[in-house]
Amino acid sequence: MKGNNRRIAWRYLALHLAAALTLGSAGTAEAYYTSDDLNTDTEVLDYIENARRNARENRVTEAQQKLAQDVEEMRTHLRGPIDPARLPLALEGDDMFYDEATGEVYAKGNVRITEIDARRFLSDEARGNLKEQVVKVDGRSHMVQMTPGEPHADMEGYRAIYHYGRHTGHMEDVKGKYGQYYITGRRIEMYPDKVLIYDGSQTKCGAKKPDYHVSGDLIEIYPGKEMLIHQVKYWLKDKVVYTRPLHRQDISKPEKGLELPRVGYDSDNGAWIGQKFDWQLTPRLNAYANIRYYSRAKAKNIFGVDWENGGNSVSVQYGQFHDSDSHWIKKEPTFIYQYGHRLGHLPVSYNLKYEIGRWSAGYTSTHRYYGITITPDPLPLGRTARLLTSFGYGVTQESYDDSTVNGFNYSATLLKDMGKDVTVYLRYTYSAANAKNSLFSYDLDDYSRKFSFGVSWAFTDRDRIVVGQSFDVETRRQEDIDYYWFHDMHCAQLILRYRAKRSTWNVSMQFTPW
Predict the structure, then answer these.
(1) Distances 239 to 213, 216, 368 between C-alpha atoms, Å
(2) What CA–CA distance (Å, rounded) separates 82 from 147?
(3) Nearest-5° Cα angle at 445, 430 to 371
(4) 441 CB contacts (<8 Å, ≥6 apart)?
(5) CA distances in angstroms from 319 to 259, 331, 358, 360, 419, listed in the order given
(6) Residue 112 pLDDT more than 90?
(7) Which of 20, 252, 460, 498 has its CA 20 to 30 Å from the CA of residue 376?
(8) Rounded to an integer, what distance in angstroms lies between the CA atom of residue 251 and that of residue 243?
(9) Is there a contact between 134 and 106 (Cβ–Cβ < 8 Å)?
C-alpha cells in the first residue's frame, strides 16, 4: 500500500514510547511565602501564589494544544467503544508505504503518529516493522503527550529506536520538558520499570541558559517512585555551587522539590543568605540542614531528621528558629511526634501532636506540648466563597517556672473571590495561649482574640500585592498592617514585605520556574 493516502491505522507506537518516559504524576511543590506572618494571617492566601506557580509550571505549548484539539476531533469520528488494549491511532504523512506481507511500514514528509489517548510522535521520516514491533527514526523526532493523569511532555531527540512490544528503546540528544522539568540528556534508555538518562540535567527554569539546574553522569527514574542522580552537580548559571555523589528525590511526593539558595534583607538582622540541604537516608527517613547567615547576627542554622509512615511523622530538630516578630528560640534539641488522619468517612481530619525538648531564649526550659486539632473540609458558600474552620485543644508545660497553659483554640476564615485576580479574606481566631501568659513568645500572638482581614490583587501576570490587617478584639485596637509585593522575574521571584505599624522591611529572592 503506497501513495498519498495521508492516514493509516498503526497502533501502539506513540503510546509505548511516551509511557516509557514517564517520570511520575504531575504536581507542584507547596511553597511558603508569608507563612511566618502570624500577625495578620496573610498566610491563608499562600495557596494563590502556589496556584500561580503551578500554572506556570504546567503551561502547555502550542504543540500540546494542537494535539488536544486533534484528539478531540478523532473521538468525534469513532464508531463504537474504545478497546483499552488496542487504542485507535492515526498515521499521517506526505508519502507512505506499508507491506502487509513483511509488516514493514514507511512514512516520509510531515509524519504524525497520533494516539487517541493524546500522545503524538512527529518526524520528517519514520520506518518500522509491525510484526517485529519496532520503529526507527534516524533524524530528528518530536514527542508530545497530553494524556490525562500523566505528565505533559514536549520533547525532541535524534536517532530514536523503540521496541513497543518489549517496551524498551532509546533516543539520543534529548531536550525538552517532561512534567514540571526541563531535561536534557546525551542518551535516554527506556525500560518497562525505569528510565535512564546519561549525561543529563534537570531544571524548572525554561531559559536557554537556565539560571539554575542539576546535572549528573546518570539519572535513574523509577516512575511514580523516585529519581536518583549520580555524581550530581548543582549549578547557578554556569557555575557549580557544590557537588555530591548521589541525589535522591522522592517523585511520588512532588511537593518535595529541589531547594535552592535564597537571599534577602530584613530590618532586624540585615542581609542574609540561606540554603537548605536534604539527604534522603531511606525512602521514609530524611535528614536536612537549613543554613542561614545574617550580616548583623550569628549564623542561624537548623538541623533535623524527619520520618514518615502513613499518618505518623517523627521529627528531631536542633537550631535557631524565629517568627515574624523576630522572636528567636533555640531548640537543643526537640522531639515532635504527630499523627494525622481522616475521621472515618466524615469530611473531617484530625491531627495529634506531642513535643518535648530543651528550649532556650536567655533561659532554658524543658518544653512540653500536647495538642489535638480538628479540621473540617472547606465549606463552599456559593461559587466564589468558602469557609475554612479548625478547632483544637493544647497543653503547654515548662520546667523553668513550673507553668502550665492549657485551653482551646479555634479559627474561622472566609475566603471570597471578587474576580479573576482579586481575593479577600476575613478571619477570627482564638487561642488560650498567647505571648503574655506563656514563658516563650515564639510563634504566639500578644493577645488571644484576633480579627484579621486582607486582600490579594494580581494586577499583572507577574505582579501581585497583598494587604493584611489585624485587630485585638478585646481592646478593639489595630495591631498590625502588612503590605506584600510579589514580582516574578524570569526564573526567580522577589518578595517584599513592609510592616507599617512596626516600620520594618523584609526583602527576599528565591528561584521559581517561569
Answers:
(1) 10, 15, 45
(2) 15
(3) 60
(4) 325, 327, 361, 435
(5) 19, 5, 11, 10, 43
(6) no
(7) 252
(8) 21
(9) no
Tens of pLDDT along 32-72? 455 455 688 898 898 888 888 778 878 888 999 999 999 88
Give the pLDDT confidence score for residue 89 in this predicted structure. 66
Cell of 83: 478497546
Name the grid cell of 229. 542522580
Mean pLDDT along residues 341-357:
95
Q: How far is the C-alpha of 125 from the C-alpha of 140, rounded, in Å?
A: 9
Q: Which pairing describes strands 95-98 and 119-129: parallel, antiparallel, or unpaired? A: unpaired
How distant, in Å, are the alpha carbons of 37, 127, 220, 378 from that of 387?
A: 21, 58, 43, 6
CB of 500 closer than 8 Å to CB of 482? yes
Q: What are 63's three cell numbers?
A: 504543540
Give Cα 247 distance to the centre of its chain. 17
Tell me the C-alpha distance between 48 and 7, whole Å: 45
Q: Is the pLDDT assigned to residue 427 strictly greater than 50?
A: yes
**Calpha distance 28→47 (Å, rounded):** 12
55's enclosing H/E stretch is: helix 46-57
Long-range contacts of 408-412 (CB under 8 A, 24+ apart): 408/432, 409/433, 412/387, 412/388
Give the pLDDT confidence score for residue 356 in this predicted structure: 98
268-325 residue pLDDT tens:
889 999 888 888 788 789 899 999 999 987 778 999 999 999 899 999 999 999 887 7
Grid cell for residue 419: 474576580
State pLDDT tens for residues 116-132. 778 788 899 988 787 77
45 vs 57: CA distance, rounded Å: 19
Give residue-wise pLDDT tens across range 489-498: 878 889 999 9
